[in-house]
Amino acid sequence: xxxxxxxxxxxxGYAVATLHLIEIDRVRSLIPQELDIIxxxxxxxxxxxxxxxxxxxxVLEYSELIVVAAAVTHSGKIGGWxxxxxxxxxxxxxxGREIWxxxxxxxxxxWGENSVTVQQSNSTLCTLNYNSLxxxxxxxxxxxxxxxxxxADLLIFTFDVEAQFGLVNAQLKVPSNSPFxxxxxxxxxxxxxxxxxxxxxxxxxxLSKRP
Length: 211
What we know:
Blueprint lengths: L8 E15 H4 L8 E2 L6 E11 L7 E13 L2 E11 L2 H11 L3 E3 L1 E4 L3 E6 L2 E13 L5 E10 L2 E21 L16 E12 L3 E5 L2
Parallel strand pairs: 5-6, 5-10
Antiparallel strand pairs: 1-3, 1-12, 2-4, 3-4, 4-5, 7-8, 8-9, 9-11, 10-11, 11-12, 11-13
InterPro entries: Acetoacetate_decarboxylase, ADC_dom_sf, NDX1-like
GO molecular function: lyase activity
Protein name: Acetoacetate decarboxylase
């Protein structure tokens, strides 16, 4: 019995995203060889951490932690590669794995007024503390893409987000025993908030068969 909606998923809530420079050598083994990693500085790509809470008006209500390990390209298409992803709704775990081929796992989220801690089996994955600096005063609609794999297929899916964006001061703590501690090192060079957010994640398309 299917316990999750079919794509597209429309999600409403808020999010904070941190951007980081990531050593390419540290992520190459996590990414399919057919994807080319985009270098933004010698030996470095760009990735980040995305923490969100989807509430009333969403097809499913849940919190989410996404680790984007790199910006990648394939056949002229550019997108992100999700190396780790955690949610607190088992139906979201199932839908993420079965629709998009994403490696979703279950975790617990503790939200404060300006903080969030994510734990799995009583082990902390990360803690984010943040304070709003200012709103950009805009509510644009932006789109992007992400790659994934499912069975023998290389997939790409698009998503678009409409939100009130702003800049935040963020301190991200990733314990040394966290599964992504080797990827996310140090503090972000940029952190962005998204309030009044409406996110639509579209169904994936098959790009190619994997070797």
